[in-house]
Amino acid sequence: MPKKLFEFHTHSPQETEEVGAALGKVLAPGTVVAYRGDLGAGKTAFTRGLARGLGCAEPVTSPTYTIVHEHLSGRMPLFHFDMYRLRSAQDLWDIGWEDYLDRGGVCAVEWSENVAEALEDPIMVTICATGPQDRQILIEGGERLACVVL
Known about the structure:
Elements: E1 4-10, H1 13-24, E2 32-36, H2 43-54, E3 68-71, E4 78-82, H3 89-94, H4 97-102, E5 106-110, E6 123-129, E7 135-141
Parallel strand pairs: 2-5, 2-6, 4-5
Antiparallel strand pairs: 1-7, 3-4, 6-7
Helix pairs in contact: 1-2
């Protein structure tokens, strides 16, 4: 199946969150959302919106030092990972990645390039700064994104 691609241009962190919220409203259990983007690009802002779209009430912050934050109050769980400190897919398996996949939630993975070989058919979200507050957001994916309309 061909990959589907959406492109958005935002002009504030709030607009970036809105794009994330729109995606969160249509995701199915078991979806992996893999982020690419430089430090400060807006990955956590996007995840705040994703959480809101899933109905999660907890505050969303970067899990840099804890590897994963669990948000369980929405229509399905959100597991927010930061793979910056991991060096390989083996590190991901060592922290119980398969257990998170089996729990029927959404796994949002910052710094996904560090563990790319462990991510099967993720929805890829690439966020690039195009100005001080401006962002280009590309959302692409295979099967899980084929029927999504944002």
